[in-house]
Design a protein that fits this description.
By secondary structure, the chain is α+β, with helices and mostly antiparallel strands. The chain folds into two domains: 188 residues, Fructose-1,6-Bisphosphatase, subunit A, domain 1 (Fructose-1,6-Bisphosphatase, Chain A, domain 1); 125 residues, D-Maltodextrin-Binding Protein, domain 2, CATH 3.40.190.80. 28% of the residues lie in helices and 23% in strands. Strands 4-3-5-6-7-8-9-10 form an eight-stranded mixed sheet, with helices on both faces. A hairpin with a 5-residue loop joins strand 1 and strand 2. Helix 1 runs antiparallel to helix 2, helix 2 packs antiparallel against helix 3 and helix 4 packs across helix 7. The relative contact order is 0.13. The structure holds 2,5-anhydro-1,6-di-O-phosphono-D-glucitol and manganese (II) ion (MN) (2 copies). One manganese (II) ion binds next to strand 5.
Length: 334
């Protein structure tokens, strides 16, 4: 049992001494992310009743149709952090450029990058959704960070995690000292520790990928997915296929039970679909901290040198052995 059931706040206070990056401010920052999660979960629970399903009619910087809930979730994060005194700049999937918060400067030394609502195609059909966040520290003395200051390598993240709105609402994060999962108890409105120090199995039995894209994948990716479907008792094949349409939920499954999630590059779109800075990097940090791996197919996600805020990247993420084997197929060794 250990510390199961303690609140997020107490967990952070108790463990703070062991966290190099942790200060009272860092705990406050996580508490604010938790608050955004509560506010969004509250909307999601009633979404079919309060006219917030469907699209806004607009498209975001990625050229994707914006759901009303994408916008609501984005505004919720902004509101929660605008006068927090904690964050000097934030960037989101839903905004072309980062937002600076002069009202929090020079006190607020954190920068936040996030996907405010992950799995938007699930909004109208009552399926799981999530949010993904990456936290950086800005030491600059020269004033508020420029847009390019937020474009940093994954290894520079000081913390990362996700919220997941499934049958329960969960907050899962790492600040470099293992991965911890908290479940929102809706009766008392608190996140309670439910999954302390999550460790991923080295190998799983499940894969998640949008197989509708099979014919667009390069040969190595196709061969790997074919391999997972062959029958071979010794290597635990065939794997089961589970794909929710929500990256955070699929990665959550792999984190707890092992396996691999793939959003590969495509022949005509080698960079794939997912975004490096606020989808791949934070989940890669979480998964590596739990003993798993995250790769572009040819290199570690966290080592990718980013050039642009909304840059895309192919993503293979999950159990360490599953990810290494997928890389071997992509290199053409199998
Ligand atoms: P978002 O809703 O933030 O745009 O992210 C959707 C992502 C990810 O959550 C999911 O795994 C994937 O895109 C689904 O894409 P396909 O519909 O192409 O499978
Ligand atoms: Mn997403
Ligand atoms: Mn999104």
């Amino acid at each position: 049992m250990g510390r199961t059931g303690i609140t997020l706040t107490r967990f952070i206070i108790e463990t703070q001494a062991g966290y190099p990056a942790a200060t009272g401010e860092f705990s406050a920052l996580l508490a604010q992310i938790g608050l955004a999660g509560k506010l969004i979960a509250h909307d999601l629970r009633r979404a079919g009743l309060i006219n917030i399903l469907g699209t806004t009619g607009g498209t975001n910087v990625q050229g994707e149709a914006v759901k009303k809930l994408d916008e609501i979730a984005n505004e919720t994060f902004i509101k929660v952090f605008q006068y927090s005194g904690l964050v000097c700049a934030l960037a989101s999937e839903e905004m072309e450029k980062p937002v600076q918060f002069p009202e929090n400067w020079p006190h607020g030394k954190y920068m936040l990058l996030f996907d405010p609502l992950d799995g938007s195609s699930n909004t109208d059909v009552n399926m799981p959704l999530g949010a993904i966040f990456s936290i950086l520290r800005y030491e600059g003395k020269g004033g508020l960070p420029s847009a390019q200051e937020l474009v940093r390598k994954g290894t520079e993240q000081i913390a990362a995690g996700y919220l997941m709105y499934g049958s329960s609402t969960m907050l899962v994060f790492t600040s470099g000292q293992g991965v911890h999962g908290f479940t929102l108890d809706p009766g008392i409105g608190e996140y309670l520790l439910s999954h302390e120090n999550i460790r991923m199995p080295a190998r799983g039995k499940v894969y998640a990928v949008n197989e509708g894209n099979y014919h667009k994948w390069p040969a190595g990716t196709r061969r790997y997915v074919d391999y997972l479907k062959e029958s071979d008792k010794a290597t635990g094949r065939p794997y089961s296929s589970r794909y929710s349409g929500c990256l955070a939920a699929d990665v959550h499954r792999m984190l707890l039970g092992g396996g691999i999630y793939l959003y590969p590059g495509e022949t005509d779109k080698p960079e794939g679909k997912l975004r490096l800075l606020y989808e791949a990097n934070p989940l890669a940090m979480v998964v590596e901290q739990a003993g798993g791996g995250a790769s572009t197919g040819t290199m570690r996600i966290l080592e990718v040198e980013p050039k642009a805020l909304h840059q895309r990247v192919p993503l293979l993420i999950g159990s360490a052995e599953d990810v290494s084997l997928a890389e071997a197929f992509i290199r053409g060794e199998r």
